Amino acid sequence: MRERKLQGAAESGFPGYGRKKPETCQMPFLRACLYTPRPDTGEIQNTYSPEYFKKFYLKKDRLKSGFFRRMLKRIETLKNKGKILDVGCGTGLFLQLANRHGWETAGVEIASFAAEFCRNELRLNVRTGTLAGQNFPGNSFDVVTMWDVLEHETVPRQTLAEIRRILKPDGILMLKVPDMDSPINQTLLFYSRLKKINLVHAPNHLFHFTRSTLKRMLMVCGFSPRRFWPVDDPVEWEFASVVKSFLFRWLIIISRVLNRRDSMVLVASK
């Protein structure tokens, strides 16, 4: 694979900070971290191999199931049951839960292995490919969700525009991304530079967001951000074996005191 370097991060410190903007950034106001050369479609699809889904999804469903139950409960306080689309649905855990709660579900997943697993093993309505390639009718979904997906998108602005098109006029978007302002992720960056290793979720994470940059991008795309929730993501805590465990425990405590956990959930209306 071609050698990758982080463009923009070295100059600006981290997305949302500093003065110099990444020259290749399609949304300069984000100061997003990009990897150059950018991975092509084939490389992206190869990243999401069957081994990737077995490691990060099927073996860790227990860690995610509680989070998904809490998020579905929050969705149901905002919307009556209707049609819900999960973009980047992985192995279908959230869709399976929503289905059991009476939602009419649909999913989109770029990885053929995961999409086939959803269809064949779970009998879910999941399409293979990108959201843009599905041609869903406009104004057709009550809720669209994206769990740890937006940071993987090659052109997130186009994806958000398509979500806005297919949402009903009173529809909502709920998404989760890493919060790169959090003490845990800031420590990841520092440790990466100190040891000259990459712990910043790349190359499959092409964009990184803070609260302010995520909110700004959604507003530019025509959404009205309504609420943020800071959330922990134990699945992403694998770097705990690299950073000394006592430091990691203190980082968790500090993050909770500051209410800046390693990830964030945002709800936005059309």
Task: Describe the protein.
This protein has one domain (45-269): Rossmann fold (3-Layer(aba) Sandwich), CATH 3.40.50. The protein has helices at residues 9-12, 41-47, 50-56, 61-78, 93-100, 112-121, 156-166, 183-195, 211-220, 245-258; strands at 5-7, 34-36, 83-87, 104-109, 126-128, 141-147, 167-178, 224-231, 263-269. Helix content is 38%, strand content 20%. With 270 residues, the chain is an alpha/beta fold. The strands form two sheets. It has a seven-stranded mixed sheet with strand order 5-4-3-6-7-9-8, with helices on both faces. The chain has a two-stranded antiparallel sheet with strand order 1-2. α4 (61-78) crosses α5. The chain contains ten helices and nine strands.
Name the helix and strand elements from N-terminus to C-terminus, one letter apiece: EHEHHHEHEHEEHEHHEHE
Q: Choose one word for the global shape.
A: globular
Catalogue the unreliable spans: 1-35, 239-243
Q: Write down the overall mean pLDDT.
A: 77
Rg, alpha carbons? 18 Å
Give the % helix.
Answer: 25-40%
Main sheet specs: 7 strands, mixed
Query: What proportion of the residues form beta strands (DSSP E)?
Result: 15-25%
- Whole-number tally of structural domains: 1
In terms of quaternary structure, the protein is single chain
CATH architecture: 3-Layer(aba) Sandwich
Q: Distance between termini? A: 40 Å
Q: Assign the structural class, choosing from mainly alpha, mainly beta, alpha/beta, alpha+beta, or little secondary structure.
A: alpha/beta
Number of strands: 9
Task: Write out the strand line-up for the largest beta sheet, numbering strands in chain order.
Answer: 5-4-3-6-7-9-8
